[in-house]
Amino acid sequence: MSPTLLFVILAIVAFVVLIWNLLLPIQGQQNKQFIGFLLDVFRHGYENSTVVQRYIDKPIVTPIKEEIDAMINKTDQGLQTYSIGPQILDSSKESSVTLTFYVEYGNNRYLPDLLDLLYKYKIDKAVFFLDKKYSHENPFMVKRIQYNGYIVHGWQTIGKYDKDYPPTTFDGTILADKEILARAKNDRDASSFLQTAISYHDSIVAFTPKIMLHKFLLETLLNHNGKDITFTESNNTSTENSVIGSDLSVYTFNKNVDPVLQYLQVGDIKETEIRAGEWTMHSLADKFPNTVQFLSDKNAFLIMRPILVDKNASLNLINQNIMFLSNQKEIDFPSTFLEVKGTAKTGNTNISSYDPILNKPDPNGYHPRPFVLVRDGAVMNLSNSTITHLGYSPGGFENTKVSKPAITYYNTTNVDIENSILKYNYYGFYSTNTNNIRIVNSQVFGNTKNGFDAHGTTNLYVSRNHIYNNGDQGFICSVHCLNVTIINNTIEHNGAGIGLHWLNTHSVIKDNIVRYNAKFGIFIEKNSSHNLVINNTIIGNQYGIGLIQNSNGNNLTQNILVDNISGQIIVEPDSQSNIENDNKVYSSKDPSSIPQRVKSQMTEIFAGEQK
């Protein structure tokens, strides 16, 4: 039967059903389900009929719809259609995911909304397991699921997952809604963990319709359809994952040794300590092959034990590819890391973890991955360098707030990061009690938590960077930050954009493009005062600018705000004496009012990293 003929028949049936329900009000659940099924059939017929699209939809329906939308949206309510928040997964290949849904009485009330959500994201493959009693008493719901192209099986053992479609286990956690949500602090942590898991290997994920109560978690996956996830009906999965311990082991170093290099015991891990002199990766590999080996097939040095560069020592990493071996044992501390107390020189340097099983960088930030620590006056600037797949949550999935960032600067000064990339780490950059930091012309993206996270910093300059697709903050400076300048950056598709948090003063946020972040574009909070936010373009975030929690005496001047979904400028009652001067608010519902420069920033397609 042709789509056009099918559409005509369905239109007639729909008219009859409409008259029927006008004369005989809807009675019973099956009647509602029948109409739901009928609407799905009608919608498919309408969308797939070229005749209807050509002669009815485009010339008649679409203009009427646009006119109605314009009438409804006379006031600026912001668009609800932006794809906000992180957009790409960490994967060198497309992930295969099989969605399975378990339906029974008790969770079935959310099933119609679930089907509508799958349709919205154009998910054409999924597997449903239905309780036998529910299937028997709800035949039209079964037909609706099948009509949408999904496989339907009977749920043989209620309360247990189907033996042919067992959900994947990743780091000791079953990839199912109740198991993940029971361990997560919030839906965002659950989402970060699930994205990490499915990027690690092909996966089967188990939900019930109650996932609609945590729709953000499901939408995290659905939003990647056609990008870096392929949804399948396959029951292939990998469950060969180790359960990693949850606590960070305390370690100490013996400082009373005399040799220039000495192995120090950390549990079963020996550390190579460089006490003095200038060293290269080649000289380390020659003298200590148990610590460093050169892999000619990868043109990289593999570091197999921790390295400490002491105050009187220097390590030259220029023009080198460095891979730190990731843990393959069930222990709580990384098998390798780099601690710098002296000097580490970089330039065209690539630093990553290495998973020998996957034969590539380790994508799992929930077990002990290597990290870099620069401390106590040490020097390690980054120039034309890349740091990737480092850092982890030492508490695993259950304690994501305590973590090892990819690179941490502690109690030091004069840090310069230029023309570099920090990607796919747990946290990207982290500093505390470190001053005079300059970060320019760099990319920071795909990090599980924050991209940049500075604490207690004076004189921080951040300019001409692209900061995007980070799970939480794109950029944040917390706890007594002073004289922070954030100028001319593009910060987009993060959990939140730019944050000055907790006693930040005398800082400037200027000339940035801040767009499509899941929470605030820019926020100043917790007793942060005397900061200037000027001439920024803030588009399509959940909220535009926020002054919250006793943030007083700040200045918002000449900012452009467009289509921020839930509010343009939010000032809480306890944040007072703030100045708002000449800020412009536009809506894409009135495109003629928007300056052309701003339009170009709205229509630019976010592509993420080219893979």
Q: Which shape, going by the Cα principal axes? A: globular
> What's the architecture of the largest domain, going by CATH?
3 Solenoid
Largest sheet at a glance? 14 strands, mixed
> What is the C-alpha radius of gyration, as a whole number of Å?
28 Å
Give the terminus-to-terminus CA distance.
42 Å
By helix and strand content, what is the structural category? alpha/beta
- Mean pLDDT, to the nearest integer, reads 85
**In total, how many beta strands?**
43
CATH class wording of the largest domain: Mainly Beta
Name given to the CATH homologous superfamily of the largest domain? Single-stranded right-handed beta-helix, Pectin lyase-like
Specify the helix fraction band.
10-25%
| Uncertain regions spanning at least 5 consecutive residues | 22-27, 71-80, 239-267, 605-611
Enumerate how many helices there are, as a single number. Answer: 11
Report strand %. 25-35%
Total domain modules: 4
Quote the CATH topology of the largest domain: Pectate Lyase C-like
Please characterize this protein's 3D structure.
The protein has 611 residues and is α/β, with parallel strands linked by helices. It has four domains: 70 residues, no CATH class; 137 residues, Glycoside hydrolase/deacetylase (TIM Barrel, Alpha-Beta Barrel); 182 residues, Pectate Lyase C-like, CATH 2.160.20; 162 residues, no CATH class. It contains eleven helices and 43 strands. The strands form five sheets. Strands 8, 9, 12, 14, 15, 17, 20, 23, 26, 29, 32, 35, 38 and 41 form a 14-stranded mixed sheet that branches. It has a 13-stranded mixed sheet with strand order 10-11-13-16-19-22-25-28-31-34-37-40-43, sandwiched between helices. The longest helix is centred in the first third of the chain and has 23 residues. It starts with a helix and ends in an 8-residue tail after the last helix. The relative contact order is 0.07.
